[in-house]
């Protein structure tokens, strides 16, 4: 009797997905794609999603590595009488399955958005109490990515709520990348490596260099403010579980130098690269920034180690990222308002990383470098002479001489 009871309990556990694991093999490198929120907020529809998928292919962004086309908040209609969530019939008249089929036909993947609470941040139906039903619905539509927000979460336990959705996704059976968006409130880096493929580390981003924009009870943060909140988090990130610094604001009103710096910082920090601009009307300089193959290689390096700041002096910060095959990336960030002339002696600065146990000793080894923005080449046997404009970065990729 006791044995059959145990079996029953075990069977129930399996069928509800208890002890489930997240899907492995997703986000082996930080996910790359686009999301509707930063530009369009609630003003979205199926045509926009189709056009964005088209643009992603046409502009070479798919070839550059961008893969996910993510619908953020406000796609929802109501739940039907059985509780099944329906898309907004006016904005998404063809339904989500048709949209997923279209996005897939372009060789891309579709992402969707929900919330752990009963309502989303935009006041639409959230997944609370419908987690398994929603995961099954998304899987049936052919969704590949679920961003899961944290509005209306009063009384919810974040570990429980996110683990429930992870289990729901697992038992729905379709590999869907699980992008956790609880803003770093409960330190997800400490507990979520087995739950999500990425977790937001902060509140929302704002397209400015170093400002905070108040919404009353909360504020969104500029690029440097978000960067500064990453202190101490690098050890928690790695293949399949990334610190998410929020979606990109490249092409959203900052200067070109700031856009380049923002993109480089996100790549160095191995944050997901989720575009937030309108791809249908993207100016060429923005397109060039977002498809820079060296910056993307830094982001997508398979070692999956986040950069760290190894030195700071005046307005400059020096960041290093160890990469696979003995490569390194080095970023010099000028946070300040004035250009700074650099005369950097490589040999005086050995770089040594406690986390990855990698080191670069420029006295012993000479590295060739390429400046990813200008294409300029050089090597570490000579001092590095450069002028770093305000609000900009110098980003170099280093390869040991063979
Ligand atoms: C929160 C999230 C944003 C976005 C909006 C949608 O603010 O952090 O990324 O998804 O909700 O309402």
TrEMBL record:
It catalyses: Hydrolysis of terminal, non-reducing alpha-D-galactose residues in alpha-D-galactosides, including galactose oligosaccharides, galactomannans and galactolipids. Belongs to the glycosyl hydrolase 27 family. Residues 314-398 form the Alpha galactosidase C-terminal domain. Keywords: Disulfide bond, Glycosidase, Hydrolase, Signal. It comes from Duganella rivi. It comes from the Bacteria. Residues 1-20 form the signal peptide. GO terms for molecular function: alpha-galactosidase activity. It is an enzyme of class 3 (hydrolase). The lineage of its organism: Bacteria, Pseudomonadati, Pseudomonadota, Betaproteobacteria, Burkholderiales. Pfam families: Melibiase_2 (PF16499), Melibiase_C (PF17801). This is Alpha-galactosidase. InterPro entries: Aldolase_TIM, GH, Glyco_hydro_27, Glyco_hydro_27/36_CS, Glyco_hydro_b, Melibiase_C. Its EC number is 3.2.1.22. One of its GO terms (biological process) is carbohydrate catabolic process. PROSITE patterns: ALPHA_GALACTOSIDASE.
